[in-house]
Write a structure and sequence with these properties.
Layout: E1 2-5, E2 10-14, H1 21-37, E3 42-47, E4 51-56, H2 63-75, E5 87-94, H3 102-109, H4 113-122, E6 124-130, E7 137-141, E8 155-158, E9 162-166, E10 169-172, E11 177-179, E12 182-186, E13 207-212, H5 215-227, E14 233-234
Parallel strand pairs: 5-13
Antiparallel strand pairs: 1-2, 2-4, 3-4, 5-12, 5-14, 6-7, 6-13, 7-10, 8-11, 9-10, 9-12
Length: 235
């Protein structure tokens, strides 16, 4: 575990220099420890793929004092257990106008579009972190699924709910925004709603299981979401 200064009010705790679920679980364990210890002066902890940024008030706890507290927490890291991990089911309408890059992905991988859908919806995806835009999840699969690169030219506008992939990772757009990953589908669910408590549908450490739906099912779920009666499936 490395602790590096990140400005005058934050430090970054870094674990292995890889993107992996075991490494990310260490990040989550450290966050749990710090949240539970409630160290005076720490104002926020922000998890990423393989690191945890710790914001603090230097007038309350100096860097050296914080450093010692963090190294003490490291001793108990192996004994810390990750909290129960949920699986959120997310419906996706793949291909056509909902997933304009589906055929291109299939061509790159040398498989059929049906196989792309099957691979993407057959395995659970782990939520590494939330970032970039409000509620945007960065997900990775335990299984090796795809090797497709980013698009050469990013799109300047993609709709809310766009499901995009790059290599073995997936994102789901919580709002309309630009994007350079391959768009294979779209979900009618809203990952970010300002007036919802909590506003984000997903959080780091959860799992997501995608499942394929028809365009008609998409419209039905979208209507239920709009009316506030759709119940997200949580396992």
């Amino acid at each position: 575990m490395k602790i590096n200064i990140s400005g005058d009010c934050a430090v970054t705790i870094t674990f292995e220099e890889v993107i992996s679920i075991p490494t990310n679980r260490k990040v989550r364990k450290m966050k749990q420890l710090l949240d539970r210890e409630s160290i005076m002066g720490i104002t926020e902890t922000v998890p990423a793929y393989n690191s945890l940024m710790v914001h603090y008030r230097p007038e309350v706890i100096g860097f050296s004092g914080l450093y010692e507290k963090l190294k003490t927490c490291e001793v108990f890291l192996e004994d810390e257990e990750n909290k129960e991990e949920q699986v959120i089911e997310i419906p996706v309408c793949y291909g056509n106008e909902y997933g304009p890059d589906l055929e291109e992905v299939a061509k790159y991988e040398g498989i059929s579009t049906e196989e792309v859908i099957s691979r993407h919806s057959s395995y659970k995806n782990y939520v590494y972190m939330i970032g970039f835009t409000p509620g945007l999840p960065y997900l990775g699969c335990e299984k090796e699924t795809f090797h497709v690169p980013r698009r050469e030219t990013p799109r300047t506008k993609l709709p809310q709910g766009a499901v995009t992939i790059w290599n073995n990772q997936t994102t789901v757009f919580p709002v309309e925004q630009p994007g350079g990953w391959q768009v294979i589908g779209r979900t009618p669910l809203r990952l970010f709603e300002l007036n919802r408590k909590p506003p984000f549908l997903l959080k780091a450490g959860q799992w997501v299981k995608f499942y394929s739906i028809t365009e008609r099912e998409y419209q039905k779920i979208a209507s239920d979401v709009e009316r506030g009666i759709y119940q997200v499936k949580i396992l």
